[in-house]
Amino acid sequence: MNFMQEAINEANFSLKLNEVPVGCVIVKGNEIIARAHNLKENNKDATCHAEILAIRYASKKIDNWRLTGCSMYVTLEPCPMCAGAIVQSRLSKLYIGTFNPSCGACGSIINLIENERLNNFVNVKWLYNDKCSSIIENFFKLKR
Amino acid sequence: MNFMQEAINEANFSLKLNEVPVGCVIVKGNEIIARAHNLKENNKDATCHAEILAIRYASKKIDNWRLTGCSMYVTLEPCPMCAGAIVQSRLSKLYIGTFNPSCGACGSIINLIENERLNNFVNVKWLYNDKCSSIIENFFKLKR
């Protein structure tokens, strides 16, 4: 299964709801245990980014806050809140579809994921994907 | 009303539940619109820090993700996840009871709140309070 494509499918759900289109899935073994898309505007809650929601669903699914051994696939580089949550939840791997030039917290503006002072290390892999960058670029082009 | 004392009361609820004792309240005008304490272990969810829960409750209460004009009083300096959430939710003011030397993201290790590159500015006031530092120090002394 193409897990980044599954994350893109989630981002498309956000788009249909007129949300900033970001989606993600959390994988354990070879199974998707949680999938989520950005719901900030619809839920009227700034914490409802795709990553936070997916972490909440995954923790519920495995009945444990520690997501050690799990991987997240996300279409857009996480913001500081979400990067912090990825670290807090002990996710082992993070696959990112495209960078976030305005508030990316996995290297673009700041790096909260691989940070010696914070003692945080999540294995990050960039899976640059045209669909991940175009979905977000097109969204903001239409908004302006 | 002493809002930091109200946050300390919340931290005491965490302590009774054998959670890292952190509490916070969110104030609008002169009224507490949300109060929360750390529930990470009990809820088995790494996103259930006091600050994230309080932001979720406050947004529900005022039916808006924008907490502009609201203040948060928190007993311990927020971690990166929570500092990021404070910024995302547009809280106007943040009152902190004591610093967090291991992962404080409001100046101790990193500063996500007043960060030019992230374009983030929340007005931060340190209200150093012995009760805020002793509750957390005593908790970790007993754990070791």
Automatic annotation (TrEMBL), chains A, B:
Binding site for Zn(2+): 49, 79, 82
Domain of life (superkingdom): Bacteria
Keyword list, A-Z: Hydrolase, Metal-binding, tRNA processing, Zinc
Matches recorded under Pfam families: MafB19-deam
Cofactor binding note: Binds 1 zinc ion per subunit.
Residue ranges of every copy of the CMP/dCMP-type deaminase domain listed in the record: 1-126
Entry cofactors: Zn(2+)
InterPro entries: APOBEC/CMP_deaminase_Zn-bd, CMP_dCMP_dom, Cytidine_deaminase-like, MafB19-deam, tRNA_aden_deaminase
Location of the active site: 51
Quaternary organization: Homodimer.
Name of the protein: tRNA-specific adenosine deaminase
Source organism per UniProt: Clostridium algifaecis
Gene: tadA
